[in-house]
């Protein structure tokens, strides 16, 4: 039975992880901030990948519908923006990170015919 050098294997894995981390950092530096946005015309939301809400703009005319409607609209737009941020992150990293790993993290491409697909492409 062949011997297994755990220290050598660990060093190789650490080196691969460091290289992948550097590749990801370089790719994100070139692409700029990865965010998702969605707008209804009177409300605009911005989220980071994963869905962290980073900005909300509410125009005065949106307030006349009441808080329940406003809440529902913000929630729906945040979901759409989260999908878009995941799509952008997927495309920004797909050349350096395995597609299955990206999907596991929640970053998936949005098909072009999907209503949440943006009209402009990002990193494609």
Describe this structure in words.
This protein has 124 residues and is α+β, with helices and mostly antiparallel strands. The protein has 3 helices and 3 strands, in the order H-E-E-E-H-H. A 3-stranded antiparallel β-sheet has the order 1-2-3. The radius of gyration is 20 Å and the shape is elongated. The model is unreliable at 120-124 (pLDDT under 50).
Rounded average pLDDT:
86
Tell me the fraction of residues in β-strands, as a range: 5-15%
Strand order of the largest sheet: 1-2-3
Compressed to H and E, one letter per element, the order equals: HEEEHH
Give me the Rg, rounded. 20 Å
Shape: elongated
Low-pLDDT stretches are 120-124
Structural class: alpha+beta
Q: Distance N terminus to C terminus?
A: 48 Å
**Helix fraction bin:** 40-55%
Number of helices: 3
- Biggest beta sheet summary: 3 strands, antiparallel
How many strand units? 3
Secondary structure topology:
Blueprint: H1 6-31, E1 36-39, E2 43-47, E3 53-58, H2 67-93, H3 99-104
Antiparallel strand pairs: 1-2, 2-3
In short:
With 124 residues, the chain is α+β, with helices and mostly antiparallel strands.
List keywords for this structure.
124 residues; 3 strands; alpha+beta; disordered C terminus
